[in-house]
Each structure stands twice: as structure tokens, then as C-alpha cells.
Amino acid sequence: MFLLICNACNYNTYIVLEMLLLLLPLLNSSTVKSFLHPFSKDKSSSSKEDDSICPICRASPTLAYLALPCQHRYCYYCLRTRCAAVPSFQCSRCSEPVVAMQQHGSVVT
């Protein structure tokens, strides 16, 4: 009887492991990081490493734009497509509503 129960446990464990091995390649590290970010204790976005990459595509922006009013840096394409798709788009770093965008390094007069 005990052996039968252990075999059932091993089979269930095997099924769970097989499912994980099937799903693991579908998840990448940036997806997991963005999913876990709201639960992290460190809410600061002042780190240079955080600001040097686009929070959407996780790459260094070739054409950098700032989300206004918070002034966090994004790739032009990433920021433009998100603002066009979602009129009430919120900054991925601080959750502030993005009302406009400005090219990084340009002066507003």
C-alpha cells in the first residue's frame, strides 16, 4: 500500500516537472522581472543601470525619448506605440500617467 502511494506521488511530481520544463522556455528573465517588480522592496528608480535601459524592451535606447512629466527614458518606438495603444499609459518605472514625450537631450522652450 505504501509503495503504491509513493508511486502515485512520484508520478504527480513527474507530471509537474514535465509541465515546468515545457513552460520554462516560454518565460524569459525580463518577463519574470517585470512580473515580480511590484513585489520588490526597493522601489527606487534612481539607479544608473535602471535608467540606461528601456523598461519595455530592456535594451539601450538608440533614439531615446523621455516620458513626461516623470522624465524616465524609453526607446522612441516603445514609448510611442504604448502611448498610441493605451491613452492612459502609465510609466513602467513610477506608474505616473504619461501625458507627453520629449526627445532626450532636447530643450523645451
TrEMBL record:
Q: Name one GO molecular function term.
A: zinc ion binding
Q: Which residues form the RING-type domain?
A: 54-95
Can you tell me where the transmembrane regions are?
none
Pathway assignment: Protein modification; protein ubiquitination
Q: Which UniProt keywords apply?
A: Membrane, Metal-binding, Peroxisome, Protein transport, Transferase, Transmembrane, Transmembrane helix, Transport, Ubl conjugation pathway, Zinc, Zinc-finger
Membrane found in the keyword field? yes
Q: How does it sit in the membrane?
A: Multi-pass membrane protein
Q: Which Pfam families match?
A: zf-C3HC4
- Where in or outside the cell is it found? Peroxisome membrane
Q: Which GO terms describe its cellular component?
A: peroxisomal membrane
Q: Which PROSITE patterns match?
A: ZF_RING_1 (PS00518), ZF_RING_2 (PS50089)
GO:BP terms for this protein? protein import into peroxisome matrix
* InterPro entries, alphabetized: PEX2/10, Znf_C3HC4_RING-type, Znf_RING, Znf_RING/FYVE/PHD, Znf_RING_CS
PANTHER family hit by this protein: PEROXISOME BIOGENESIS FACTOR 2
The entry sums up its family as follows: Belongs to the pex2/pex10/pex12 family.
Q: What is the name listed in the Swiss-Prot or TrEMBL entry for this protein?
A: Peroxisome biogenesis protein 2-like isoform X4
Q: Which organism is it from?
A: Gossypium australe
